[in-house]
Amino acid sequence: MRNRFLLITWLTLALVTSLPANNIQVSDVRIDQLFKDSQYAYVNLDVSWENSWRLTTAPGNYDAAWTFVKYREGDGPWKHATILGAAGVTGANIALTADQRGAFVYRSSAGTGAVNFDNVRLLWDYGADGVEDYALVTLQVFAIEMVYVNQASFYLADGQGEKFYPLLRNNSGGGSVVYRVTSESPIVIGTAAGNLTYGTGGTAGGGGDNGTLPAAYPKGFKAFYCMKYEVTQQQWVDFFNTLTPTQQTTLDITDASGKASQAVVVRNGVTWSGSGPASTSRPFVPVNFVSPARSAAFLDWSGLRPMTELEFEKAARGPLTSVTDEGVWGTTTRAQTAYTIANLDLATERISNPSTTAGNVVYSLTQPTEVAAQGPLRTGAVAGSPASPTRQRSGAGYYGAMDLAGNVSELTVTVGNATGRAFNGLHGDGTLTTTGASNVSTWPPTNTGYGERGGDYSLTFYFIYTSEREFAATTSNAGIARRGFRGVRTAP
């Protein structure tokens, strides 16, 4: 029996992306070739999505599918597969990671539109994972849409000094307050001329807590991949359903520390009976009511990591010079009329009256009037609404990340206290503790070290400024309705 490798593949959709028009799917998952002597096996899959791009003009970047494999032996727990290599696919590049947690699949040449990469082959080192040749194995392959953020210098602050908020700025003692990040070298946060400083707009952003931002803290200069959208409720449920019963109990967002209900609350439709699989009636809406610790568990499980607040500003602004009072879409104009929604609660949910002359963003003035829609909209709903989308009309960041402002706020690792500054950018390894916690010891353990950027559906206009930091060094241990999260990964 030891010469037989019996493997059952579970054909499964990828983690569904938030914009249904992009429709990322993984299919035809199977073992394609087995190398018993070395205990390797090729996992074959097809991956496709719409509205893909690779650009030769600014910003000169591309989108990609972060692709990783989970396996289980018999009825045992789901584990993360070690990916040792990959076989080439016509029209696609496959970028492996040094920690062997997965691979990025993306266009090999310039183009836009739908992509369908058949027969992507990821080399699984099942021997390293302790799987015997005769094991009965089930596979799931997941894919998450990402955007590539190029290595480049960029600016913090928006050139206007400080009005409402404790922005990060250059302590120049006069002249420009913009601070330029030119490398991943340490940054001194202090009161001397030329230091990075917090300003005086409040303490929630970390004002007065000075120190050094170490070289290991991801500052956004180096290239990284950023999730195109916040984590959706379907993505959360797919993650949750691979956990053990004990881990599920820890990470259940329907309990008292989350939304405290099995009903739909602030558009969160996740439900779980206390055993078995969870489900959601709002799969395309961003998941909210997720605490920082539970967010970290998802990111660890998927091989990603939390985003820093400097990476947030880089993803939003790109390498461009700051604009006073700018939104993530690069201008100061913003929609100021309440939106109405078409196709409410469907996968095609969108805004039926987007602005054609200003940045579209979901915040207090544009929050839709439908009572049932109070709360976040489907992720990507803003981008999917204009007939002739541009960066401004879609509310998109410079590199193509959507919903960085408004809708739900972004959970970020702060520079505003010592706990946040100790973050060294390690990626998740795909494995959680037996109780469901992230096992990456250098990530902020709870709410201390995290904060929020980008504003949300309930807050007024100045909270959606790119440089605004009112909540940048403070957040709640509990899950709250207005906050979401997305993951990033430093480029290989």
From TrEMBL:
<feature type="domain" description="Sulfatase-modifying factor enzyme-like">
    <location>
        <begin position="189"/>
        <end position="460"/>
    </location>
</feature>
<feature type="signal peptide">
    <location>
        <begin position="1"/>
        <end position="21"/>
    </location>
</feature>
<dbReference type="InterPro" id="IPR042095">
    <property type="entry name" value="SUMF_sf"/>
</dbReference>
<keyword id="KW-0732">Signal</keyword>
<protein>
    <recommendedName>
        <fullName>Sulfatase-modifying factor enzyme-like domain-containing protein</fullName>
    </recommendedName>
</protein>
<dbReference type="InterPro" id="IPR005532">
    <property type="entry name" value="SUMF_dom"/>
</dbReference>
<dbReference type="Pfam" id="PF03781">
    <property type="entry name" value="FGE-sulfatase"/>
</dbReference>
<dbReference type="InterPro" id="IPR016187">
    <property type="entry name" value="CTDL_fold"/>
</dbReference>
